[in-house]
Amino acid sequence: MKLPRRNFLHLAAGAAALPAESRFAWAQAYPTRPVRVVVPFAPAGTTDIAARLMGQWLSERLGQQFVIENRPGASTTIGTEAVVRAPADGYTLLLVTTSSAINTTLFEGKLNYNFLRDIVPIVGIFRVPNVMVVHPSVPAKTVPEFIAYAKANPGKINVESPGAGTSTHLAGELFMLMTGVDMVYIQYRGNAPALIDLLAGHMQVGFDTMPASIEYIRAGKLRALAVCTATRSHALPDLPTVGEFVPGYESSGYFGFGAPAGTPAGIIDKLNKEVNAGLVDPKMKTQLADLGAIILGGSPADFRTLITDETEKWGKVIRAANIKAE
User: Fold this and answer.
1) Same domain, 201 and 282
2) Which positions ≥6 away from 287 have C-beta within 8 Å?
3) In angstroms, how far is the first alpha carbon of the chain from the final one?
4) pTM attached to this predicted model
5) What DSSP element (H or E) covers 69?
């Protein structure tokens, strides 16, 4: 039996719409089980702060646990690859950091993934200034005094870093490149062990993210010399910028969520909407302000633009400083 053309077209259109409706319903129901958030750093650093603050918010809003899984190592590439290889179903997310942009050049031709192709951006959470801090035993109290001290002691000052290719590592490399000082970089597996040795005086200087170091600064356990952003921070308004003494210097870190490429757009949009809601929540805004964070938010496209721009910026620094992956 032949159907009239109008009826046939109506049925065909209805059949084509079913998969889209099914995908929409799936996204509406998401999540139906716990979601894993891979943090490619050791516990207790700024990445943990970002992941746990937003993970708790999402758990409360969406009714399922967002479980933080720390997967440190190889400059965040181990954790990142674990997410790239995970099913694209919204149940494995990545805490994206500046390292993702840095690694594109640092490990050029050596990675088993292409970040911009294999991870889909969900949303930027916040940006944080890096802050130049020294152990109180270091005699310098200003950036110019530190530069003079470092030049008088070439190769004798240890700089801590939570890992090769991290934003704090590149912040210090950029400082050395622009000032001509010679310091020794000591790489750790994560921010917490690096800070422990800086606090103990085994390291002399660090270019840490503000959330990780601000309480130690306020307690007098570390001396802040300057923030690394282009403008002063509202969290430490009396602290000058490095750029006031080294014109053109700027360094900050960013944090956000990503997912394996192919994750349904409805899930990406739902997560984006909920994170943006968290970023305007008064309690969350206060918590982030206390850490010196600069709230991002916005669309997935906004976050992709940020990652692309940072990839270009740090690629230039890595090539100029001839930085090699360890």
Assistant:
1) no
2) 53
3) 71
4) 0.79
5) strand 66-70
